[in-house]
Amino acid sequence: MLICLKPLAFIICLIPVAQLAYGYYSDNLTANPIEYITRFTGSWSLIILLASLAVTPLRRLTGWNELIKLRRMIGLFAFFYAALHFSTYMVLDLDFDFAAIAKDIWKRPYITVGFSALVLMIPLAVTSTAGMIRRLGKRWQQVHYLVYPIAMLGVLHFYWLVKADIRRPVQYGSVLALLLGIRLAFRLTPIVKTWRAKGSTPLLPSSAAPRGRKEVGAGTERSA
Amino acid sequence: MLIKKPADIKSSEITPRELYLNRRQFMLSTSAAALAFTGVNFANPPAQAQSAGKLANVKKSNFSTSEKLNSLKEITNYNNFYELGTDKEDPAANAKYLTTRPWTVAVEGEVKKAKTYDIEELTKLAPLEERIYRLRCVEAWSMVIPWVGFPLSALVKLAEPTGNAKFIQFVTLHDPKRLPGQKIPTMEWPYVEGLRMDEAMHPLTILSVGLYGEVLPAQNGAPIRLVVPWKYGFKSIKSIVKVRFVDKQPAASWNMMQPQEYGFYSNVNPEVDHPRWTQATERRIGELRRRKTLMFNGYGEQVASLYSGMDLKKFY
Question: What is the spatial distance between Cα A180 and Cα A57, in angstroms, rounded to a whole number?
Fold first, then answer.
């Protein structure tokens, strides 16, 4: 199954690039291609980031454990589109005017949060190799919890930049809230069960619910 | 990464425009004939028929810039007209909903000659002129557009404003069937805008009914819109149905929604940034590099005196 799953996901993640290339050759990137490419790559970065966050809930809800093997690639694609997004802004829009870029990052909150999200993604990309996972051990998990603030900053970046039509950023925000909500539910369920089992109010829930316990295939996966 | 420059020759330029349109007409009439042959009643005129139409006796104007024009394709496919959708390509795609006949414009309020004008009458109110203006959007892009219209002052003079008339408020059509974007509460509908009386009377301020010598396409604010070239584009309200003379500064849509981002005046001013982005530079559509934004969009010589003594950082 995985044999075709991974290449398939890889190709799907490349469709937006192909769309851009096609739009470029058919002169179809609107009258303002730079703005279009900026928005397009930004949107896809967010969508793919949300997809990477959907892997764990999907896996746990469906029991389809092989999905986890797609997560790294999807996450790296989110970084890839974020990098394209920033490059478009830096190279095409502002033509390497680093003074203007620095001023933007400092002065414009939506750019501040967007840039922060991108910078925070770098350590995740760097530590995504098998070697780094091994070397970092338990700390790998902690580093990769960064994906939650990254996703929140990304959605905020989008929300703060639109002029009036907040529908799309709100959609992205809702999906993110749902994905984080599911995680919270996963976390709380065993705790609640333990409380019920004990039949009393828990004073020390931490002792009742050790984290990351008895997960399927706990040796190879990290649930971030 | 390289950005492809727009193709030197557009297909619409290779074929002379008349032939190009004739071809469309041919295709429409043959398809109509085919439908007639199969017994289908083709009563509704095709959508294109409404926007096609050359405007006669259009005079040149000294107010026109000699800068390179943006193409008809650029001007009609990259629009901010939220009533027809919030993406730039939406207004062109949804233009078919905005039927512009019949259409009337009510002139009312502090005037001696209140009147509801039919659009045909308005178009003949004053000699039509071609005005090639720069348009600077508040989003930091710009175009050069050959509008066809007449000075707003012509309409104001006919209305004979009373001494109480200090401002004019303009109102866009409110009809979610014809402007489907109004089904979504992106903004408070209808869209409204306003000018101070001296701004309205300024010879650069026009009511436009056309573009590139032809009837204004729906996505550009048909059948009649305001064009105030020294202000950000959103001041140039589209598809107007009411011109109301008032004694106080009237409500203006973006100003109401985000007063700290969009002032009532909204003169193009490279020194006053939008809180979220710089207004010092802009991208001329069709160009790769940003260019410097000019004070009053380059119309300072003509309009700066309107604002003498005003702190434009305060009255942005």
Answer: 9
- For the record, the structure tokens of A80 come out as 């890839």
Query: Looking at residue B207, what DSSP letter applies?
Result: E
Sign of CA dihedral B223, B172, B61, B245: positive
Percent of chain A with pLDDT over 90: 78
Whether A98 and chain B come into contact, CB under 8 Å, resolves to: no
In degrees rounded to 5, what are phi and psi of residue B148?
A: -125, 130
**What is the least distance, in Å, from the CA of A12 to any CA of chain B?**
22
Residue A160 burial (10 A CB sphere; 0-12, 13-18, 19+)? middle
Mean pLDDT of B170-179: 98
- ∠ Cα B256 B261 B263 (to 5°): 60
How confident is the model over A163-190, as pLDDT tens digits?
899 999 999 999 999 999 999 999 998 8
According to the model, what pLDDT value does residue A199 have?
67
Whole-angstrom Cα distance, residue B243 to residue B171? 7
Q: What is the 3-state secondary structure (H, E, C) of A140-189?
A: HHHHHCCHHHHHHHHHHHHHHHCCCCCHHHHHHHHHHHHHHHHHHHHHHH
B60: CB partners within 8 A, 6+ apart = B129, B130
- Answer yes or no: do B283 and A100 touch at CB < 8 A: no
CA distance A46 to A158: 9
Q: What is the mean pLDDT of residues B239-243?
A: 98
* Cβ-based contacts of B278 with chain A (< 8 Å): 100, 103-104
- Token pair 């998990």 is at which residue? A141
Closest in B3, B6, B86 to A34, CB measured: B3
Determine the residue type at B29: S
Q: Which sequence spans correspond to the domains of chain A?
A: 2-188
Query: How are the residues of chain A apportioned to helix, strand and coil, as percentages rounded to the nearest 5?
Result: 80, 0, 20
Q: What is the ipTM of this complex?
A: 0.80
Residue A195 has a pLDDT of: 80
Chain A residue closest in CA terms to B262: A163
User: What domains appear along chain B, each with residue ranges and CATH number?
Assistant: 1-44 (no CATH), 55-307 (3.90.420.10)
Q: Residue A76: which residues within 8 A CB-CB, separation 6 or more?
A: A125, A128
**Which pLDDT tens digit goes with each residue over B116-146?**
999 999 999 999 999 999 999 999 999 999 9
Q: At B279, list the tokens.
A: 């207004």
B290 contacts on A by Cβ (under 8 Å): 93-95
**B48 burial level (CB within 10 Å; 0-12, 13-18, 19+):** middle
With a cut of 70, say whether residue B272 has pLDDT above it. Answer: yes
B226, burial (CB in 10 Å: exposed 0-12, middle 13-18, buried 19+): buried
Contact B65, B204 (CB under 8 A): no
